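pasting for ref
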Amino acid sequence: MVSFSFSFPATVWALDGLGPWTATGVRGLLAGLLAAGCLAAARAPVPPRRDRAALLTVAGGCVLGFPLLTTLALQTSTTAHSAVVIGVLPLATAACSAALTGRRPSRTFWTAAGTGALAVLAFTLSQSRGLPGTGDLYLFGALLLCAAGYAQGGRLAGHMPGWQVIAWGCVAALPVTALVAALALPREPVHLTGQSVAGLAYIAAVAQFGGFVLWYRGMAVIGVPRASQLQLAQPLLTLVWSVLLMGEHLAPLAPVTAVVVLACIAVTQRART
């Protein structure tokens, strides 16, 4: 969660020198090449046919959909606001996992997760005068796609090394990310700065690949439903970065919402599945 919590600030840095489509395409292209190198070095076997549909879901949700939609959202939303909205992701991930595996978390689990989600929804509506803005719609779409990728990836990590799950997902997305990068680079302005290069390097190497290596490993150890609720800590961490690194001023309800969501983590982690 620490590595993921910095992805929004790093994306904003990347957007300082790149357009949203260029940043998404180059991010995925670099992560795919890094993943391909790791797979080749480890001589990892090609995944069996039964796992390929799930890997495509990981690619579509975590490598393509989430990065693109959140990057578009960050053009109009602050990192702090976006981080709190994405706080709904744990509930969506747990729901997807339950649908895939047939395992049903307890009522206490769902109550705590739902409370965290409602707190985020209330915050979102309070910040947009009762109606979600365009950036919010991008973020809600992103979290739905990412939840499906998280749930499928967590399931695959039960019988496949976690790092290979995201590595094959990045490789599967390479044809699309390479095409996006090739089409976007001539059409969007590029003004590289030290900050934009650092941001791009982070979202490609850490947010898109390295962080997932740890994430899917953790999911395999403690299970998708419980692991997904640890994501509720991500908004709080990103709020810290938004103030310390981005110089943003928090809305009064932002830290309150983040603390409510954090309290829900403790309950979900104690609830039985």
